[in-house]
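Sample pair:
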Amino acid sequence: MLLWINGPFGGGKTQTAHEIHRRLPGSVICDPEHAGFGLRRMLPPGLRGDFQDLAAWRQGVVEVLDLALTRHDGVVIVPMTVTESGCFAETVGRLRELSHDVHHFTLLAERETVLKRLSGRGLGAFLPFSAGKNAMLRRESWAVQQLDHCLERLSEPEFAEHLWTDHSTVAKTADRIAVLAGLTLKPNADGRVRTRVRQAGVTIRHIRFD
């Protein structure tokens, strides 16, 4: 089974994926961003655009996930934002055509909620100036620039199933996904402090400067 967790940048995909992985024995996380940033690094700086525009990325993601789903016994979890219909068809759609059991979920939240989450991810006091003006904050700035487009596109029916997370914790969102996918997660026994420390660790491990 494949769990594809979609949503705007800063919408909680990675944290939710890691929460499910933590509580679902045998599961693995396969992050297509690794392939995307690798392909970007191969290009001269002036040619580095959105790696989802590269056919090599779309085809490679399907090939690798097809292999993982065929050879791995556990659930494969994919946290990845995809907003364009063509790219969605060539990745999620193609995996379904290959007869894999694909469950796609889009995490949505109000704009203000996502901005607050981005702020907590490191944007902080610079958020009002987020328009790509500060190189040190370019990743979050880019995420803010893309936010309205992401929320509009991902609200479309083709990107269902939609889960609104404004008033939901990461653990509760993981529980909802598990129920909808017919999975059983281990109980969440962590307290607030331990949860914050673990989630901070996930955030730090996923900081990229590409």
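The helical segments are 13-23, 32-41, 55-71, 85-97, 111-123, 138-154, 170-181, 192-205.
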